[in-house]
Amino acid sequence: MTASVTEIWRYPVKGLAGERLERVAVTAGRTLPQDRRFAIAHGDSGITAEAPRWELKTSFHMLMHGRDERLAELVPSYDETCGALTIRRNGASLASERISDPVGRAKLSAFFVDYLRARLRMGIPSKQRS
User: φ, ψ for residue 39 (rounded to 5)?
Assistant: First the structure.
């Protein structure tokens, strides 16, 4: 049996949409490069860029029914050559920063705080807030 790959997708930010790759170098026994490289931690998780650690997925925002569903609107792309993470919605760029730079990371963090806070302003019942 012969297999062929017709598309390959990676998910640079865990819990957000994926990005279709035109090409990627893969290594046997290794994960897809830059796949789920980043995640959006809950503010009360204690996880920071300076003190990252493995945690259960419930410590992070995620695309799940009844929980952070607005994340489905966001499409990330990660340029590994310069370290820029771009977030788009409906084709329009909402944020684009070098995530390896502390200032860029802070701007992306502020974007996500504001974007997810809008969910709370929409009147989502408190038992569903995360």
Answer: -150, 160
Domain range annotation of the chain: 8-128
- Picking from 36, 104, 116, 27, the residue whose alpha carbon sits closest to that of residue 76 is 36
* 96 contact partners, CB below 8 Å, separation of at least 6: 84, 85, 86, 87
SS3 40: coil
Do 8 and 20 form a contact (C-beta atoms < 8 A)?
A: yes
For tokens 């806070």, the residue is 117
Give the three-class secondary structure for 129: coil
Confidence of residue 128 (pLDDT cuts 50, 70, 90): very low
pTM for the predicted model, two decimal places: 0.76
